């Protein structure tokens, strides 16, 4: 997801051109509420007035605790973009210093990454964030790194100039801190101090850019208000914060998790095919909320899809629209078309040979595979392919499948019991997609 040119300037993402907020809402604040993007905030009336007035500078911070952002971060990035579309001025902060600390988790201490790793990840995250914001015009986005104002700050200056404004009694009442204090593990002073660092970020951005609003997840509310409180105490100014809800599925499970792994925005960590399928598999009960949060479709468009979910759920029009919109936004339209074409080809409705190797590998990752070394001794017969992949339980069953016209290799029906297949027949010189019937498939890597 690199988005910076060789000159260091962010490249223009074509997806930005068609994005707008929904003009059917009287104010931006009302649209944010309708989309379900406001879980908690400072004074609502003041925020609605602020966002409906002259351009205001605002920010959201992202810590490099991994080499990629994930779907939870995407909520914040798209909120930054929605505010920018209303004329406001975004600051994207990547935490080169706070990434060395890590905000307190609900359960246990974070493993601290070394400085070189954090520096490398800062670059990755910056490139990802830049893809979603515009760096042109009167309200061009700017990227900042909090290491710039904390890197040379001495511990004494930090304690005297910043720490003196924080009360321990207030700090220990923050939800995550309180949970950790009551746990067997407790909390280190390192993680306990995180809210002071984040509060200092907001103060510095207010001083340097006139920043008056911070956004973040509602689980960060204690850290968000540490900044508003600090600005009020030091500068006598009312700053604001918006906490978005933590996105969960209708069954209460955590959104964006698959077998314990986040759905990453980096194609190297989560392929466009896997990403697309994640959205395509959204439950009917969740799809409308996802459309509101993760797409720029209007209220009218989403209500039309709501009717289709109600009247023709089997067509899954809302899920297809969601998958197209979000995958195109994150990975681009070309990659998304490749994913859709690959899905069609794998199920016999397109040119399988045109599917690139990485997409093919991702699309078939969960299929049964043959025993290792099956093709290393030369071409393999159709009966052996069916049996070794488990598509047929025995040689006799495999032969019946072939005789009945139910076997195919790379979408070509096989009727000859003596047919053999080698690397010359394989996709990308190595893969055979073996099928029994319409839905039972397996992948054979002849080089494994």
From TrEMBL:
<dbReference type="Pfam" id="PF00579">
    <property type="entry name" value="tRNA-synt_1b"/>
</dbReference>
<comment type="similarity">
    <text>Belongs to the class-I aminoacyl-tRNA synthetase family. TyrS type 1 subfamily.</text>
</comment>
<dbReference type="InterPro" id="IPR036986">
    <property type="entry name" value="S4_RNA-bd_sf"/>
</dbReference>
<keyword id="KW-0030">Aminoacyl-tRNA synthetase</keyword>
<keyword id="KW-0963">Cytoplasm</keyword>
<dbReference type="GO" id="GO:0005829">
    <property type="term" value="C:cytosol"/>
</dbReference>
<dbReference type="GO" id="GO:0003723">
    <property type="term" value="F:RNA binding"/>
</dbReference>
<dbReference type="InterPro" id="IPR002305">
    <property type="entry name" value="aa-tRNA-synth_Ic"/>
</dbReference>
<keyword id="KW-0648">Protein biosynthesis</keyword>
<keyword id="KW-0547">Nucleotide-binding</keyword>
<dbReference type="InterPro" id="IPR014729">
    <property type="entry name" value="Rossmann-like_a/b/a_fold"/>
</dbReference>
<feature type="domain" description="Tyrosine--tRNA ligase SYY-like C-terminal">
    <location>
        <begin position="376"/>
        <end position="444"/>
    </location>
</feature>
<dbReference type="InterPro" id="IPR054608">
    <property type="entry name" value="SYY-like_C"/>
</dbReference>
<dbReference type="InterPro" id="IPR024088">
    <property type="entry name" value="Tyr-tRNA-ligase_bac-type"/>
</dbReference>
<dbReference type="InterPro" id="IPR002307">
    <property type="entry name" value="Tyr-tRNA-ligase"/>
</dbReference>
<dbReference type="GO" id="GO:0042803">
    <property type="term" value="F:protein homodimerization activity"/>
</dbReference>
<keyword id="KW-0067">ATP-binding</keyword>
<feature type="short sequence motif" description="'HIGH' region">
    <location>
        <begin position="64"/>
        <end position="73"/>
    </location>
</feature>
<dbReference type="InterPro" id="IPR024107">
    <property type="entry name" value="Tyr-tRNA-ligase_bac_1"/>
</dbReference>
<feature type="binding site">
    <location>
        <position position="194"/>
    </location>
    <ligand>
        <name>L-tyrosine</name>
    </ligand>
</feature>
<dbReference type="GO" id="GO:0006437">
    <property type="term" value="P:tyrosyl-tRNA aminoacylation"/>
</dbReference>
<dbReference type="GO" id="GO:0005524">
    <property type="term" value="F:ATP binding"/>
</dbReference>
<dbReference type="GO" id="GO:0004831">
    <property type="term" value="F:tyrosine-tRNA ligase activity"/>
</dbReference>
<keyword id="KW-0436">Ligase</keyword>
<comment type="function">
    <text>Catalyzes the attachment of tyrosine to tRNA(Tyr) in a two-step reaction: tyrosine is first activated by ATP to form Tyr-AMP and then transferred to the acceptor end of tRNA(Tyr).</text>
</comment>
<dbReference type="Pfam" id="PF22421">
    <property type="entry name" value="SYY_C-terminal"/>
</dbReference>
<comment type="subunit">
    <text>Homodimer.</text>
</comment>
<feature type="binding site">
    <location>
        <position position="257"/>
    </location>
    <ligand>
        <name>ATP</name>
    </ligand>
</feature>
<feature type="binding site">
    <location>
        <position position="198"/>
    </location>
    <ligand>
        <name>L-tyrosine</name>
    </ligand>
</feature>
<keyword id="KW-0694">RNA-binding</keyword>
<feature type="binding site">
    <location>
        <position position="59"/>
    </location>
    <ligand>
        <name>L-tyrosine</name>
    </ligand>
</feature>
<feature type="compositionally biased region" description="Polar residues">
    <location>
        <begin position="1"/>
        <end position="10"/>
    </location>
</feature>
<dbReference type="InterPro" id="IPR001412">
    <property type="entry name" value="aa-tRNA-synth_I_CS"/>
</dbReference>
<feature type="region of interest" description="Disordered">
    <location>
        <begin position="1"/>
        <end position="20"/>
    </location>
</feature>
<protein>
    <recommendedName>
        <fullName>Tyrosine--tRNA ligase</fullName>
        <ecNumber>6.1.1.1</ecNumber>
    </recommendedName>
</protein>
<feature type="short sequence motif" description="'KMSKS' region">
    <location>
        <begin position="254"/>
        <end position="258"/>
    </location>
</feature>
